[in-house]
């Protein structure tokens, strides 16, 4: 029997972008709940630090250098989880980047393609590689980290908003195409979370951003990581294709 704190015991998980921010918190919470975790990131040092934190806390993890915008890296990542831990139960497609705020008419092709390749191609390559492994496993879960900007627009953020809406769409599509094979997908939509980016905001912009959340503040990575671990619990069997905001009420206004 597993304790309530050990609700992912025996599970094998991967987290892309696990070397910092939300991905690190998700990986730590997966491990804390008993999962073995492959941390994937472009940043080797950040990834190694996440693995170290998991090991120090008594969990099990390893790092795989991964560029999510590469199809071969996405496949190699899945192969790594299978060779290390024998299977894949949970895949969290978290890696993503935000562009500098730019009015839509001024966005050049290079910026547009960069955001598409990481935030959208990256999630698609991930899902495409993960589905056969999850089916081989008799089923499993894909958690895609979208954003509140997968539901609404935001000034200057066209490529980001477009990719995050698309990630919500891909999540629904997994449910439609693979529910009968035991594969489920959930998208989560964080609002603004303190992962370091906000350090550069001037006090006025920071205050405006904070007050856009009815709770009156930005979120902490911990408030995303803990919820992502919970929605990855195996007893969420009837939840599929859902979008869950983690947003301090941002989308409720
Ligand atoms: N922080 C927020 O306020 C916020 C809000 C909503 C959604 N999100 C989403 O959450 C996810 C994580 O964001 P974060 O704030 O933790 O970002 P972050 O910049 O703190 O961390 C992102 C991690 O992804 C890695 N990464 C970047 N490009 C990669 C690639 N091509 N392949 C593999 N790894 C790559 C980086 O090296 C880094 O370790 C993103 O998808 C982001 O869009 C963040």
Strand order of the largest sheet: 3-2-1-4-5-6-7
- Can you summarize the main beta sheet? 7 strands, parallel
Mean pLDDT across all amino acids: 97
* Distinct bound molecules: nicotinamide-adenine-dinucleotide
Q: How do the helices and strands follow one another from N- to C-terminus? A: EHEHEHEHEHEHHE
Would you give the CATH topology?
Answer: Rossmann fold
What's the level 1 CATH class?
Alpha Beta
Can you count the beta strands? 7
Radius of gyration over all CA atoms, rounded: 17 Å
**End-to-end distance, in Å?**
43 Å
- Count of discrete domains: 1
Approximate strand percentage? 15-25%
* CATH architectural label: 3-Layer(aba) Sandwich
- Count of individual helical segments: 7
Structural class by helix and strand composition: alpha/beta
Descriptors:
single chain, 253 residues, alpha/beta, Rossmann fold, seven-stranded parallel beta sheet, globular
Tell me about this structure.
The chain has a single domain (4-252), classed as Rossmann fold (3-Layer(aba) Sandwich), CATH 3.40.50.720. The protein is 43% helix and 16% strand. The chain has helices spanning 21-32, 44-56, 71-85, 109-136, 158-178, 203-211, 221-231; strands at 12-16, 36-41, 60-65, 90-93, 140-145, 183-190, 242-246. Strands 3-2-1-4-5-6-7 form a seven-stranded parallel β-sheet, with helices on both faces. β2 (36-41), α2 and β3 form a beta-alpha-beta unit. It is globular. Bound molecules: nicotinamide-adenine-dinucleotide. Residues 16-17, 19-23, 41-43, 46, 66-69, 94-97, 118, 122, 145, 147, 190, 192-193, 195 line the site of nicotinamide-adenine-dinucleotide (NAD).
């Amino acid at each position: 029997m597993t304790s309530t704190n050990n609700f992912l015991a025996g599970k094998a998980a991967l987290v892309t972008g696990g070397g910092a921010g939300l991905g690190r918190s998700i990986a730590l919470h997966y491990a804390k709940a008993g999962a073995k975790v492959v941390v994937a990131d472009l940043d080797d040092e950040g990834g190694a630090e996440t693995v170290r934190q998991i090991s120090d806390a008594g969990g099990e993890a390893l790092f795989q250098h991964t560029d999510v915008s590469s199809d071969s890296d996405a496949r190699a990542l899945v192969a790594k989880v299978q060779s290390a831990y024998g299977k894949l139960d949970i895949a969290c497609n978290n890696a993503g980047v935000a562009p500098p705020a730019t009015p839509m008419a001024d966005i050049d092709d290079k910026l547009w393609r960069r955001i598409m390749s990481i935030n959208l191609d990256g999630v698609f390559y991930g899902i495409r590689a993960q589905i056969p492994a999850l089916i081989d496993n008799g089923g499993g879960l894909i958690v895609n980290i979208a954003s509140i900007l997968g539901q609404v627009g935001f000034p200057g953020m066209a490529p980001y908003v477009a990719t995050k809406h698309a990630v919500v769409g891909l999540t629904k599509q997994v449910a439609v195409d693979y529910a009968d094979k035991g594969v489920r997908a959930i998208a989560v939509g964080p609002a603004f979370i303190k992962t370091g980016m906000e350090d550069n905001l001037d006090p006025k912009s920071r205050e405006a951003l904070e007050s856009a959340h009815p709770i009156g503040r930005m979120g902490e990575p911990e408030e995303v990581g803990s919820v992502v671990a919970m929605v990855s619990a195996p007893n969420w069997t009837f939840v599929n294709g859902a979008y869950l905001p983690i947003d301090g009420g941002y989308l409720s206004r």
